[in-house]
Automatic annotation (TrEMBL):
The gene is Scn2b. Keywords: Disulfide bond, Glycoprotein, Immunoglobulin domain, Membrane, Signal, Transmembrane, Transmembrane helix. It is found in: Membrane. Pfam families: V-set. This is SCN2B protein. Residues 173-196 have a biased composition (Basic and acidic residues). InterPro entries: Ig-like_dom, Ig-like_dom_sf, Ig-like_fold, Ig_sub, Ig_V-set, Myelin_P0-rel. Residues 169-196 are annotated as: Disordered.
């Protein structure tokens, strides 16, 4: 019996849950992903969609199918600029001259075959009209950076372990098939100890 792989094995997408941007400024909406496989442009696909409210339908405005295609939504005009690099697992974009009506949810969908699962990141963009009051947040920044750095290392280690396990599992599956073909000699009919 082979144990079934957990359904969420595969790609992971990282995106900040909330980004604050000043009205009129440029903001980078960051979306990166982990995959055990190299990005092949012919198979890789990316969709960025926008939702003005949680129940509203998603509007596609940026996609990658062998190359970047900017679906110029009237709402954004030509203010969307792809600033990521799929080969480096980065599919971020920059929104220039941010407007109040740009506020909403931005969804980042990534598929990198042979990974079968499509990764999804979600960013909530809040547009500010005035700077929030400045307060000394040096300690918070240091703590945040330390925790962030630690989490990044943990995620990287987990990803490496996952990739190694997946490749090992594939090798085991191949070995199992070979063993079955060579003939089932032992391993059958072992008595169950402890049950009478």
């Amino acid at each position: 019996l082979h144990s079934a792989a957990p359904p969420r094995l595969g790609m992971e997408v990282m995106a900040p849950a909330l980004i604050n941007a000043m009205n009129g400024s440029s903001v980078k909406l960051s979306c990166t992903f982990n995959s055990c496989y190299k990005v092949e442009n012919k198979q890789f696909s990316l969709n960025w969609t926008y939702q003005s409210c949680s129940n509203c339908s998603e509007e596609l405005f940026l996609q990658f199918r062998t190359k970047i295609m900017n679906n110029q939504l009237d709402r954004f005009g030509n203010r969307v600029e792809f600033t990521g690099n799929p080969a480096k697992y980065d599919v971020s974009f920059t929104l220039n001259n941010v407007q109040l009506e740009d506020e909403g949810t931005y969804n980042c969908y990534v598929l990198n075959p042979p990974d079968r699962h499509r990764g999804h990141g979600k960013i909530s963009l809040k547009v500010l009209t005035e700077e929030p009051p400045k307060h000394d947040s040096t300690v918070a920044v240091i703590v945040g950076a330390s925790v962030g750095g630690f989490l990044a290392v943990v995620i990287l280690v987990l990803m490496v372990v996952k990739c190694v396990r997946r490749k090992k599992q594939q090798r085991l599956n191949t070995d199992d098939q070979k063993t079955e073909e060579e003939g089932k000699t032992d391993g059958e009919g072992n008595p169950d100890e402890g049950t009478k």
